Amino acid sequence: MSKDEAPRMHTAEHVLNGVMVARYGCGRCFSAHINPKKSKCDYNFDRPFDDADARAVEAEVNRVLSGNLPVTAVDMDRAEAAGSFDLGRLPDDAGDTLRIVRVGEFDACPCSGAHVDNTSEVGSFRIISHDVENGVLRVRFKLDAPAA
Ligand SMILES: [Zn+2]
Known about the structure:
With 148 residues, this protein is α+β, with helices and mostly antiparallel strands. The protein has a single domain (3-143), classed as Threonyl-tRNA Synthetase, Chain A, domain 2, CATH 3.30.980.10. Helices cover 26% and strands 31% of the residues. It is built from 3 helices and 7 strands. The chain has a 4-stranded antiparallel beta sheet. It has a 3-stranded antiparallel beta sheet with strand order 3-4-5. α1 (7-24) crosses α2 (51-65). The protein binds zinc ion. Zinc ion is lined by residues 1, 10, 14, 101, 111, 113, 115.
C-alpha cells in the first residue's frame, strides 16, 4: 500500500477497493500508484470492464463518500487480523501489531498510509480511463475538490 502523502486520494482508493470487491468479487488492487492529481489501481480481473461498469463504480464510490463516513484506525494483533483480512500483500516487516483502517462500516483493511478523517473531505471521484489487458484491469481516477 502506498505511503504517499495524498490522504484524499488514498482514502478514495480504500473505497474504490471496497466497491470493486463487493461488485465483482475480485481482490483489492494488487498495485496502486497514488498521486495528488491522478492515481491508478490495478486489479486481477477476469472479465470485460466497459464504460457502463466505470460509471456504475464511480456512482457507487461517490455514494459511499457522500455518506460522510468516519475514517478510523485501530491496532490489531497480527494473528487476530489474519482471521479477518488477507495479509498476503503485507511487507514481512509489518510487525506483530497491524493498523486496521475502517471507512465507516463500509470497508476495513490493514493499512499504514495517511487518510482523511471523514469521507466528506475526499471530494468527487471520477474514473478517467480503464482498460483490461492480460487479466489486469487498470483504473485511473481523479478527484474533484469537495464543495467548500
Ligand atoms: Zn490506507
